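Input record (one chain):
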Amino acid sequence: MPGTAMVLAAGLGKRMRPLTATRPKPLVEVAGRTLLDRALDRLRAAGISQAVVNVHYLADALEAHLKSRPQDMDIRISDERTKLLETGGGVVHALPLIGDDPFYIVNSDNLWVDGPVDTLRLLAQRWNADEMDALLLMVPLARANCHTGFGDFHMDPSGRVSRRRAGRVAPFVFTGVELVSKRLFDNPPEGAFSMNLLWDRAIEAGRCYGISHQGLWFDVGTPRARAQTEAMITHG
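The corresponding structure, as predicted from the sequence alone:
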């Protein structure tokens, strides 16, 4: 079981305005608990002992909040105050702080509820270093709560993923949770770039896989989605 996770928390949260006018998006609360705390609590419950959190927008507020948490995890800050590096560049910048290989990457703006098996342990059980550079947690489009897109990926019977074609619908949505090898970041672009670039490279090499989430998932990207998610969580 990998012991380290990278939590992506540096985004500007523009779609969540006005809630993010005075706080970073990871500190927006859903049913009395911040999105960041919910992600870190899931990691801790799965036995992950170290989390690297990147910060940019209202970074001081994020750091202060992390210091106020119980000291039951080794939480390290990857500072992007001077330049926002996007998802891929942010992970590359944080790699010196990440000891494990493979390691988890978790977006802080989604919320998941485990199914019969702990989601993060399920990813670890499915991981095959000989075949994979990335293992993405997917949710069927029909069960992607509060999500408004047309799906992201197809999966073949072995779990190997391919992209949705333009003008089509794909059956799976990426949840923002993945298990990756450091090999995925070999020879990266400089500066800011998206994880999509690295996934496409892994897809082309046949080394990007997916697994279907067995529980619930919520895309908490807007104030409306936040309210809907809170209602569903609170009232079942």
